[in-house]
């Protein structure tokens, strides 16, 4: 039984109101993998990097106990590079540079040792690659979580709709849910999106938390109010990784467990934004995580018996 | 022991994507009073209307068991009139008409029978009138809740700061909290605003719920996701009325009780927006309210023991 995450491993250069970085390690698979590693001992990544990524950087990931045998290292090529600048509200950002590099021809390889995969996160990539990944698994996983973004709705909507038919949980943000459904009301949007295939829809609302729709129910998860959001990069990926890691650890996928998984994912995402890149996320103790979970319980509990 | 609410009683004409109304009963005191009336049997209003308001309209309020002996009826004058149009997102609106009419010279009268007031809501009015109301009470109430808006921060900031010194709970929305504090982070904004006087700050975030700050703690309350928000007018006032009504019924004002009060207020506000004006809010059964409270419990509960 293992948990597979496919996504990008990248170099990022980030500018926020609090400062800016040179090239640092980033990418959806990096954040999601590290987040999941705290909740699951058997995390396997599928990704591609260039020769410039270097052994030291790959070791940062390996040292979290993550299996990188599905990470291709392309000789003579360069790692995917993204550079962006966040505005004061931290909800909007400008992309300054996107150098696809190795990502342009990414053809995912799933080693034989990955074939026992029961839980998979299809991180934000082209829907074609997300679908190809599922097709390269001999068995259908017990749980398929898919993360995507507005860009793929703009340029590859039909492909996205095809992969959605094979997905159990879809995670997108509120404006993406509105775009995908054509409905402003998130309740109506969820109805339409769930009819496209997923059994559960998680709508991420950044500082406003997240909504879960499925089994005819709705769950509203809070976000931890933070004095400073230092760098939001990777928060959504950390959320998805924590979500999957928790579900793989409890082994039963239902509405109640997904509610808890969202809190675990939110807790890990709340660490991610405290420093640049993976600096905070990669250096957590189990007690840090437990304390943060207690903060979420305190934040949202009340005592009404109706 | 009684609960006093001062605010506007108005005629509103509202246009939303779902339709438009002729002149209907509105006003902060109307909404707050009706909401509070479900949780408390001793609600007293302070307000002013014109002769055009009519006995039938006043009876709608009286029939909820609300004491209107503090509502002045100014002969030969016209009731405050507001007309607005909501945009698709229902969070922004254009004010089309504001005819102050009787409100221009409003000088609140607190009848002798109101002097046992222990719980008071100073609804959205000029800070000068809010202060004058407190000064006309012989005893300091046990709880003062103040609602205000960005307009008073623009034109009467010093007066507002004066009345804030005498307030226990302040309710404003997120953009108002940012304006009043000069801080974007709501955590930092709360710190600054609490230093201005209130012991507790409630930041209303519309469809994203509300945050409570005080006693060094934070509580995040969800909003009920609705398929259709028919008319948001009065939601904030219904929230404040429900909040005060609950606190007056439990008689102890502390962080835990304010958390519950926010859920009661949110439940009443969630009814308010389902129809135009007070149509839905004024026609609730106790079982309707209990069912809605159960929906809030289901919406936000999860089972993590950290």
TrEMBL record, chains A, B:
<dbReference type="GO" id="GO:0005829">
    <property type="term" value="C:cytosol"/>
</dbReference>
<dbReference type="InterPro" id="IPR029056">
    <property type="entry name" value="Ribokinase-like"/>
</dbReference>
<keyword id="KW-0808">Transferase</keyword>
<keyword id="KW-0418">Kinase</keyword>
<protein>
    <submittedName>
        <fullName>Sugar kinase</fullName>
    </submittedName>
</protein>
<dbReference type="GO" id="GO:0016301">
    <property type="term" value="F:kinase activity"/>
</dbReference>
<dbReference type="InterPro" id="IPR002173">
    <property type="entry name" value="Carboh/pur_kinase_PfkB_CS"/>
</dbReference>
<feature type="domain" description="Carbohydrate kinase PfkB">
    <location>
        <begin position="20"/>
        <end position="277"/>
    </location>
</feature>
<dbReference type="InterPro" id="IPR011611">
    <property type="entry name" value="PfkB_dom"/>
</dbReference>
<dbReference type="Pfam" id="PF00294">
    <property type="entry name" value="PfkB"/>
</dbReference>
């Amino acid at each position: 039984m293992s948990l597979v995450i496919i996504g990008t491993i990248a170099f990022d250069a980030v500018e926020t109101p609090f400062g800016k970085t040179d090239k640092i390690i980033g990418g959806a698979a990096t954040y999601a993998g590290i987040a999941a590693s705290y909740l699951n001992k058997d995390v396997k990544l599928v990704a591609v990097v260039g020769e410039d990524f270097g052994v030291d950087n790959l070791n940062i990931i390996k040292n979290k106990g993550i299996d990188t045998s599905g990470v291709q290292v392309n000789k003579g090529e360069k790692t995917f590079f993204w550079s962006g600048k966040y505005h004061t509200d931290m909800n909007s950002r400008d992309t300054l540079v996107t150098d696809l590099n190795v990502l342009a021809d990414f053809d995912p390889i799933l080693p034989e040792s990955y074939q026992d995969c029961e839980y998979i996160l299809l991180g934000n990539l082209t829907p074609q690659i997300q679908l190809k990944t599922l097709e390269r698994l001999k068995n259908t996983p017990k749980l398929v979580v898919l993360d995507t973004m507005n860009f793929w709705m703009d340029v590859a909507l039909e492909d996205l709709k095809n992969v959605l038919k094979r997905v159990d949980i879809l995670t997108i943000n509120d404006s993406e849910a509105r775009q995908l459904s054509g409905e402003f009301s998130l309740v109506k949007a969820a109805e339409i999106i769930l009819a496209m295939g997923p059994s559960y829809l998680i709508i991420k609302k950044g500082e406003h938390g997240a909504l879960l729709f499925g089994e005819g129910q709705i769950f509203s998860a809070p976000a931890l109010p933070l004095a400073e959001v230092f760098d939001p990069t990777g928060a959504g990926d950390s959320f998805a990784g924590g979500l999957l890691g928790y579900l793989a650890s409890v082994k039963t996928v239902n509405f109640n467990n997904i509610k808890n998984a969202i809190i675990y994912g939110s807790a890990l995402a709340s660490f991610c934004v405290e420093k640049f890149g993976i600096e905070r996320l990669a250096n957590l103790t189990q007690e840090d995580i437990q304390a943060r979970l207690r903060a979420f319980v305190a934040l949202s509990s009340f005592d009404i018996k109706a």
